[in-house]
User: What shape does this take?
Amino acid sequence: MSIIMFLGRDVKEYKEKSLEIIANAIENRALLCEFKSTPMQIHMHYPRGVKRGAGKADRDKIEVYFVICKACDVAHGHALLPDFLLPYKQYGADEVESVIIDSATQAVSAIDTEASESTARRWIKQVGGRVVRAVSVLKAIFMEIGRAIAETRIAPGHCYGELEQVLEMAPCKLRYGGNKLGLANMWLGRQSRREYI
Ligand SMILES: [Zn+2]
Assistant: This one.
C-alpha cells in the first residue's frame, strides 16, 4: 500500500528535494513500521510516468521511492507517493481536481482538460464518489482526534466544496503541495485507513 506524503510541490521540486524529505522523515521517525515502530529504510526506486495537463500533453517521469522494514521477520514496505499524484492515476492530481471542480458547474463535454471525455466522465463518477466517502471518513478521523464537527457546520453542496470545508476543520495544518485531493489523502493515510481518493 502506498503512503502519500508531501515530497515537493511539483515534478521539478520532487526531483530536487524528495530524497532529502524522505531522509528527514526517516530520521524524525515519521516513517515507521506499523508493527514494531522501528524506522523504515529506503530500499529501491522505480520509474513512474506522470501525464501533465493544461496544454502540456507530454509525459514527465519521476522515480518513486520504496521503503521497507528490516526489523520484522517478513519483509514489508510501502511506496512513497507525492501528494500531487493519485494512486493508479496517470494524470497528476491537479488535472483530476480541476475536472472535479468544473463538473460542479459545467457539462462534461464543456470541461477544458487534456484527458478524453470518457476519462473525464470516469473521474467524475469514480473520484467524485471517493470524495464523498472521504468527507465522511475525514469527519470521523477529526472527531477521533478530538475535534467535534457538527454536521450543520458543513454546508451541503458539491462534493469538492464539502471536502474543502471538512479539510478546513483539520486539527492541525499539514504541509502539502496545494492539491486538496492530495491533502485529503495524507489525512486518510495518517489514520491507517488507506481508502485513498
Ligand atoms: Zn516491520
